[in-house]
Amino acid sequence: MMRSVVPKRLVRAAVAVGNATSPHSSSILPATVTKGATTMHSQRRNQASAAGKNISAPLAEPPFPTVIIYNQSKHATNSVIADIRAVWGNKVKIIQTLEDGLQRLPNTDGALYVRPKSWGDMGHFKERLDWCCTQDHTLYSDRKEGKVVFMPGWSAFAESAEAAVAVTKLGLVWPGTEPVASETLEKIGFKKICEEVGAPTPPFTVLAEEGSGVDLTDPTAKNKLVEEFMAKVAAMKATEPGLIKSIHGGGGKGTAHLNDPNDPNQVRAAVEKVLTEMNRSDGIYFEQKVNTKEMEDFTSLNWRWMEML
Fold first, then answer.
1. How many CA atoms lie within 13 A of 282 on its CB side?
2. pLDDT tens digits, 109-135
3. Is the separation of the CB atoms in 86 and 18 below 8 Å?
4. pLDDT score at 210
5. Is the pLDDT confidence value at 40 over 70?
6. Which of 31, 75, 128, 262 is 20 to 30 A from 243, comparing alpha carbons?
């Protein structure tokens, strides 16, 4: 079960309490704030501010003093910031992770810069985090005491056992799915469980297990891998359209539609799309599409199986 640092039900109940317009100073790297957030976020922030003037209830004590938001989406990051400020006001120090050269968002207390297109590279993140800790003694102290929460940015990353272990080793608090659950219930693992117990699931084939893969910068190795994937899809002899998917993707990234699984050109294009988007070749599978009625049947039958197990 996914655990959130800011439970939505708590946010809805406490959104009127916060003061989301309080100024915050940079404590790690100086940066010029952007001219404004989106219209929706501005309205939400103004509503929270106005409500805060009419309600005198005290802000809740935060479970942790520092939060690092690890999300490449400005809109999603704005949403998390607004929720945190609404519930805990200035009591939580918010550090935004963003790529070199970009401007951090308003209502954040600092920025942790990473190399462009390095999202998910926890080795690189560690280097930048360690450097920030040499510049910010509060961050260093909170991290040492296990009081820094790492907010994973996208669903696949938040459900990754590999990411959970890496973040925990950094001395940060991981609020996502527990590693032991992620290892079993990631997309491929869950489909295998369904297959083993006889529970219904759309036809699928694993192209690459999680943790496997090749060096995609080597053209020869990459082409050999693409051909292996193509052969596995062809062996299914699927008669219906399908999807090539990465378990590390999310929000449409790492997914390629395949209208004709028996067309080698389409299969190659779909596989190469996923490899390019994810820049990794592990945790990839092909799944046949199902229509709405079939999906409803799968969902209903799986609920019955879950009740029996």
1. 10
2. 999 999 998 888 899 999 999 999 999
3. yes
4. 79
5. no
6. 75
Residues 115, 122: Cα–Cα separation, whole Å: 11
- DSSP state at residue 219: H
Residues 115, 99 contacting (CB under 8 angstroms)? yes
Please tell me the distance from the alpha carbon of residue 148 to that of residue 94, in angstroms, as a whole number.
10
Domains of the chain in start order, with CATH, are 8-177 (3.40.50.20), 184-308 (no CATH)
- The closest alpha carbon to 150, from 177, 127, 175, belongs to 175
3 vs 126, residue with greater confidence:
126
b/e code 160-189 from CB counts within 10 Å (16+ = b): bbbbbebbeebbbbbbbbebebbbebbbbb
Q: Which two tokens stand for residue 204?
A: 């699928």
| CA 242/CA 265 separation, integer angstroms | 15
What is the DSSP track for 30-98? --PPPS---HHHHHHHHHHHHHHHH--PPPPPPS-SEEEEE-S-HHHHHHHHHHHHHHHGGGSEEEEEE
